[in-house]
Specification:
Elements: E1 6-11, H1 15-26, E2 31-35, H2 42-47, H3 49-66, H4 83-108, E3 111-114, E4 117-121, E5 124-127, E6 130-139, E7 143-145, E8 158-159, H5 161-165, E9 173-177, H6 181-192, E10 196-200, H7 212-224, E11 228-230, E12 233-241, E13 244-251, E14 258-262, E15 264-267, E16 271-273, E17 306-308, H8 319-333, E18 347-349, E19 354-359, H9 362-369, E20 372-378, H10 383-387, E21 394-400, E22 406-413, H11 416-428, H12 433-437, H13 448-457
Parallel strand pairs: 1-2, 1-6, 2-3, 6-17, 8-15, 9-10, 9-15, 10-11
Antiparallel strand pairs: 4-5, 5-6, 7-16, 12-13, 13-14, 18-19, 19-22, 20-21, 21-22
Bound molecules: flavin-adenine dinucleotide and 1,4-dihydronicotinamide adenine dinucleotide (NAI).
């Protein structure tokens, strides 16, 4: 048998890669992880989930003070923005958490190979000029921003999500290209801090992939908050002149062009898998039409000994999906049974209110199962949300008409991201709407809206 330097070598230390490396080491495998960034944690910890939530959290406080929400509760304040301090706490959060992964690597004896990894063959990579061999190699190289043809990101006037997290001043007019998760989260941050924000979305509705009613309601709420929308519209060009940009827009279905002036343009039209420079040709591995590496249910690629997880493989580009795949791939490599149920991956948009969902949309459930039953409960009728002055949103449960099994749960609520965990767990256990309706929920909590939506599936909620 060949002698390898490592049992497992993971390429990329994002949520997919660092979790795979730690779990592999916990299972007694000699493990290394190659990462080209100066800090561990990947997109999520460095320029994604964590810094965006730091800015969302801080700007939410600012907004609550500025928009009168605090005054309504008897707290009169006139907020003054100290953007440098706000950025400082964002950087501190990133530093603390990325340093935490370095600590966990040391604790679990995972070797960090610093540099860009390239395949030499299916069991050898070169990292920073050094060769390392491993019996198993896990590709967890993640994703990066999809460019918009003809538009150059200069990180000054035209920014991507990384630039939008670090703006040195509040823009006067920010135009967000793409009404997806990044556009709405980062658009919300700068709107709350005082920018005028216009969101240009190619499709007729924002938040593709979410339940139709949720998309419509979210659009209404964001409009009420002051975000302007140009739906069914595409950006065909961005001309930068000094510190100003002129965008050319056209109706998606064709028609007369118009222009829009902005001092900040955020390009957020999606992300694409990172495979360039990996040397996949050296191991005979091809990507699919979307640039993703295909795997089987165990996260094996077509090449023996090479596995892949996270944003670089098909499925939603989410940190928790990557993490669960990281655990599963390590367990599979160790000869255990690692499984991820891709039908039950929650997704959350961390705006105000939060928007969350798990499972099928009503539209997809109908297409797949024919007849479905739907129960809805408005947050306005939830005692805690009402008391907290958080009237917007609802919970919606989609269940199979015959078996009553829950197929999807959708929520717009201040704490929807936390609420959705119980829905995911219920679905993981194959719950019916009746199971949820007869589970005792603490009062007064926002989660009672999930119970009442489940009761509404059979037409019998109490509080509406
Ligand atoms: P990544 O985190 O992208 O990590 C891959 C790592 O591999 C990178 O550090 C990269 O430097 C390294 N790498 C790549 N190629 C090589 C190579 N050849 N050699 C060595 N190293 C290499 N998801 C959520 O679930 N919740 C959120 O709130 C959320 N917010 C986000 C906000 C923003 C602004 C963005 C951009 C993304 C957000 N995401 C969020 C998505 C989330 O960040 C990704 O789904 C997640 O990071 C994917 O993990 P990964 O391990 O597959 O890849
Ligand atoms: P996205 O896929 O969520 O949204 C992109 C939007 O841009 C779509 O609505 C699309 O129709 C639109 N679009 C595409 N081309 C366009 C054009 N030329 N003109 C106008 N609109 C156009 O992508 P986004 O927001 O960039 O996020 C990338 C990924 O990052 C997401 O898929 C998500 O998985 C992940 N992410 C997750 C977060 C979370 O979980 N809270 C937060 C931020 C990112």
């Amino acid at each position: 048998m060949a002698d390898y330097d490592y049992d497992v070598l993971v390429i990329g230390a994002g949520p997919g890669g660092y979790v795979a490396a730690i779990r592999a080491a916990q299972l007694g495998l000699k493990t290394a992880c190659a990462e080209s960034r100066e800090t561990l944690g990947g997109t999520c910890l460095n320029v994604g989930c964590i810094p965006s939530k730091a800015m969302l959290h801080a700007s939410e406080y600012f907004d609550a003070a500025a928009n009168g929400a605090m005054a309504k509760m008897g707290i009169k304040v006139t907020p003054e923005l100290d953007l440098d301090t706000m950025h400082g706490q964002r950087r501190d959060a990133v530093k603390g958490l990325t340093g935490g992964i370095e600590f966990l690597f040391k604790k679990n004896k995972v070797t960090w190979l610093k540099g860009l990894a390239t395949f030499e063959d299916a069991h050898t990579v070169s990292v920073g000029g050094q060769k390392a061999t491993a019996k198993n190699i896990v590709i967890a190289t993640g994703s990066s921003v999809t460019p918009l043809p003809g538009v150059t990101v200069d990180q000054k006037v035209v920014v991507d999500s990384t630039g939008a997290l670090e703006l040195p001043k509040v823009p006067e007019h920010m135009v967000v290209i793409g009404g997806g998760v990044i556009g709405l989260e980062l658009g919300s941050v700068w709107r709350r801090l005082g920018a005028r924000v216009t969101c240009v979305e190619f499709l007729d509705q924002i938040l593709p992939g979410m339940d139709g009613e949720v998309r419509k309601e979210a659009n209404k709420i964001f409009k009420k908050q002051g975000i302007e929308f140009k739906l069914g519209t595409k950006v065909t060009g961005v001309a930068v002149n000094g510190d100003q940009a002129t965008l050319t827009l056209e109706p998606a279905k064709g028609g007369a062009a118009e222009t829009l002036e902005a001092d900040c343009v955020l390009v957020s039209i999606g992300r694409r898998p990172n495979t360039d420079g990996l040397g996949l040709d050296k191991i005979g591995l091809q990507v699919n039409q979307r640039g993703q590496i295909e795997t089987d249910h165990d996260f094996r690629t077509k090449v023996d000994g090479v596995w892949a997880v996270g944003d670089v493989i098909p499925g939603p580009m989410l940190a928790h999906k990557a993490e669960d795949e990281g655990i599963a791939v390590a367990e599979n490599i160790a000869g255990l049974t690692g499984i991820v149920n891709h039908d039950v991956i929650p997704s959350v948009v961390y705006t105000w209110p939060e928007i969350a969902g798990v499972g099928l949309t009503e539209e997809d459930a109908k297409a797949k199962y024919g007849e479905v039953k739907v129960g809805k409960f408005p947050m306005l009728a939830n005692s805690r949300a009402k008391t907290n002055h958080e009237p917007d949103g609802f919970v919606k449960i989609v269940a199979d008409a015959r078996s009553d099994r829950v197929l999807g749960v959708w929520a717009i609520a201040s704490v929807a991201g936390t609420m959705i965990a119980q829905a995911a767990q219920a679905m993981e256990f194959g719950a019916t709407s009746e199971d949820i309706a007869y589970t005792c929920h603490a009062h007064p909590t926002h989660s009672e809206a999930i119970k009442e939506a489940a009761m509404a599936v059979t037409g019998k909620p109490i509080h509406i």
